[in-house]
Specification:
The structure holds 2 protein chains of 2 kinds. Chain A has 16 helices and 11 strands. Chain A is of the alpha/beta class. In chain A, strands 6-5-9-10-11 form a 5-stranded parallel sheet, covered by helices on one side. In chain A, strands 1-2 form a two-stranded parallel sheet. In chain B, the strands form 3 sheets. A 5-stranded parallel sheet of chain B has the order 2-5-8-1-9, with helices on both faces. Chain B has a two-stranded antiparallel sheet with strand order 3-4. Chain B contains 12 helices and 9 strands. Chain B is of the alpha/beta class. In chain B, 41% of the residues lie in helices and 14% in strands. The N terminus of chain B is likely disordered. The chains are: A alpha/beta, B alpha/beta.
């Protein structure tokens, strides 16, 4: 029973497991949900789908399956009518059932549409109009085997679009929310736990050992709490061609902020020169000399650049090449200084990897960072974090 | 672990409006005795659900609020080795029995309770990534082993377990497979009306209509970092009622666009506030 439905979900790349499927059947056996297709829709979602970002895919799969089934002759008997019928048998005589079965799926939907147009006010009881009670196929608490439950408590004038066809979770499926979370999980590879700071935690093993050494007299030992000690220095390219990538950069940035306790960030435009800034609004008045950055933050910081590295090669290679000011030394010199100061470095590029070889400036930067440029995809991020956490 | 206990059903309560799909999820969790994982936007009443279910069914509620430092073991029991050590220094007789120093956690209390209980594991995503994995057997079989006293604690009645998550971390698949899952959707305008009615039965209809309009309009402003949620709406209404702001004040008179009064209750983020002020300003200039 329902095996095809289960396999269909699996084929639609929904992560469902046998165990959950058995739960689903168990729930049906124990009458967790009523007889309507809508309740079945909710029940199987509760049971099988464990992430709201998959809700939309589930809605589509469910729609495909239950539409498909009724369109294919022969299969129609299998699902979910089987359990619908079992439930209906309790309430209806065989003749009534046969009569109701004559009304096929398409007909049912067609009639439903018509009646919705005809019906203007709330209705209760009776056998034709949509409402509560009664044996009309539409509405709440009806006894029609193919009944479709409409809306919440009042079936009155609300539109009767099937829940899964409204696809209300479509916007949960976009990558925004998923993005930040996935990014965080990828960044977590960079965790390195260490104990430093104030001793606040009781070291039980140490206490026992010390007490034993003390001939049984209690000797409390404390130790600092364990926390992520990775330090990150983040340089973000802003403005110009980076405007296309603002969203993904924002996500990365917010993920970084919550993931690393020691995070220092600076902005630059196209290429790093003698100074960077922290606040875009005051970028011209409050700048930090790059030399100061290098002196202040030790070599144990991991250096991460975020930028598309798309610019004129002059901006990298030549003095006075910057498009914003007269730079005495070329960007490449400053970039090299940074890379010398911080052995662990990576450049994340939001441009798709396949475009890299067509841009001269990207090639130059890749050379400068010794091929440690990674695309800003989940996979690229994972690779970058792995490279950064290697011993240097 | 008796399956013959009387069928409990949750139908919402006078303080809590539950949508039909939420009720189905809760009742499935109750009847099939599996944990129910609840997600949803902040402020949609995830934590309140457990409290309301416990109150509606007349069962005791045991809460376990998870923090970033919480370990799974703490929900089962903790061995207070330090006080045992101290007692041994003082020559206390209690020291001979190790079970005097086992401190029972929330799950143990629930397992040995005389009647079924409701257990709330709040914000499970705050804990370490391994936390849910450490609770697999406990939540599945509803039993665990106490190493210090070599006893097996098994639930007399499987508790009704609610777990809330704010999506800060991915939960492991093995854990998810053992739970039922429900995502509390942001309520639509009608449900919202019912929620407000429950909280402020006396609120004047005109004020409420205007307020809901402003509220849903605000949720539609693009680019807000934190959209106002149900609990913020309720706070805001409280303020409006307390300040006796007339309904007309919420209405933009003669087409003039203005900030809604007491907007600070709805927008909690100064960037959002700035963005909104800017939009209001731009809208005004366009006229």
């Amino acid at each position: 029973m329902l095996i095809d439905f289960f396999l269909h979900l699996k084929a639609r790349k929904l992560p469902v497991s046998t165990r959950e499927y058995l739960n689903l059947l168990d729930g049906l056996r124990q009458h967790v949900c009523g007889q309507s297709l809508e309740e079945f829709y909710y029940w199987s979602r509760i049971c099988l789908i464990k992430d709201e970002s998959l809700y939309d895919r589930y809605d589509q799969a469910f729609g495909e399956y239950f539409k498909g089934v009724t369109e294919l002759p022969g299969l129609a008997q299998e699902l979910p009518e089987e359990w619908l019928k079992a439930a209906a048998r309790k309430y209806l005589s065989p003749e009534e059932q046969a009569r109701l079965e004559k009304l096929g799926w398409d007909k049912l939907m067609e009639t439903l549409r018509q009646r919705l147009e005809e019906q203007k006010e709330r209705h209760q009881g009776g056998s034709k109009w949509i409402g509560t009670g009664g044996s009309s196929p539409f509405g709440n608490n009806g006894t029609h085997p193919e009944g479709i439950r409409i809306g919440g408590d009042s079936a009155g004038n609300r539109s009767a679009v099937k829940v899964w066809e409204q696809r209300e979770f479509r916007n949960l499926d976009d990558q925004v929310q998923l993005g930040t979370r996935n990014i965080k999980v990828a960044l977590r590879r960079l965790r390195r736990f260490a104990r430093d700071g104030a001793a606040q935690e009781l070291d039980l093993d140490g206490t026992i050992a010390a007490t034993a050494r003390n001939a049984g007299w209690l000797d409390l030992m404390m130790r600092p709490e364990r926390h992520n000690s990775v330090k990150v220095l983040l340089f973000l390219d802003v403005g110009g061609s980076m405007d296309d990538h603002v969203k993904v950069c924002e996500e990365l940035f917010s993920a970084c902020r919550s993931e690393f306790k020691h995070l220092e960030y600076f902005y630059f435009h196209n290429c790093v020169y003698e100074s960077v800034w922290r606040d875009s609004r005051r970028r011209h008045s409050e700048r930090t000399a790059l030399a100061d950055v290098i002196h202040r933050y030790g070599p144990d910081y991991k250096l991460i650049f975020v930028g598309d590295a798309t610019m004129s090669p002059y901006e990298i290679m030549h003095p006075h090449g910057s498009i914003e000011h007269m730079n005495a030394e070329p960007g490449a010199a400053w970039l090299r200084r940074l890379l010398d100061a911080y052995p662990a470095a990576a450049w994340l590029n939001p441009e798709p990897e396949r475009l890299w070889e067509y841009r001269q400036s990207i090639g130059l930067i890749r050379q400068l960072v010794a091929e440690r440029m990674y695309p800003m995809t989940l996979d690229g991020l994972t690779r970058a974090m792995r490279a950064l956490s290697r011993k240097h | 672990m008796s399956r013959s206990q009387p069928q409990l059903r949750f139908e919402g309560s006078k303080d809590y409006i539950a949508t039909p799909d939420l009720m189905l999820a809760v009742n499935a969790a109750i009847n099939l005795q599996r944990p129910l994982l609840i997600k949803g936007e902040p402020g949609t009443g995830k934590t309140m659900l457990a409290e309301e279910v416990a109150a509606a069914l007349g069962l005791p509620l045991l809460q376990w609020h998870v923090k970033s430092t919480t370990k799974a073991q703490q929900g089962l029991y903790e061995y207070d080795a330090v006080s045992r050590l101290r007692d041994s220094q003082l020559g206390d007789d209690r020291v001979r029995n190790i079970s005097n120093y086992i401190v029972k956690g929330v799950l143990w209390q629930a397992f040995e309770a005389e009647q079924p209980t409701v257990v709330l594991i709040d914000e499970i995503d705050k804990a370490d990534i391994e936390f849910p994995n450490d609770l697999l057997r406990e939540l599945d079989r509803m039993e665990f082993h106490v190493y210090e006293t070599r006893e097996l604690v098994r639930a007399r009645h499987r508790p009704i377990v609610f777990i809330t998550s704010n999506n800060e971390k991915e939960l492991p698949d093995a854990f998810l497979r053992r739970c039922f899952f429900h995502y509390i959707r942001f309520p639509d305008k009608e449900t919202m009306q019912r929620i407000v009615d429950v909280h402020f039965p006396g609120i004047r209809q005109a004020l409420l209509n205007e307020a809901l309009e402003v509220f849903f309009g605000l949720r539609d402003v693009p680019g807000l970092k934190k959209k106002p949620s149900t609990s913020e709406l309720i706070d805001w209404l409280k303020l409006l009622v307390a300040e006796e702001i007339p309904a007309e004040a919420l209405h933009s008179k003669d087409g003039k666009v203005s900030m809604p009064p007491l907007a600070g209750a709805l927008l909690k983020n100064e960037q959002d506030m700035h963005l909104f002020e800017r939009l209001v300003f731009m809208a005004r200039n366009n006229r």
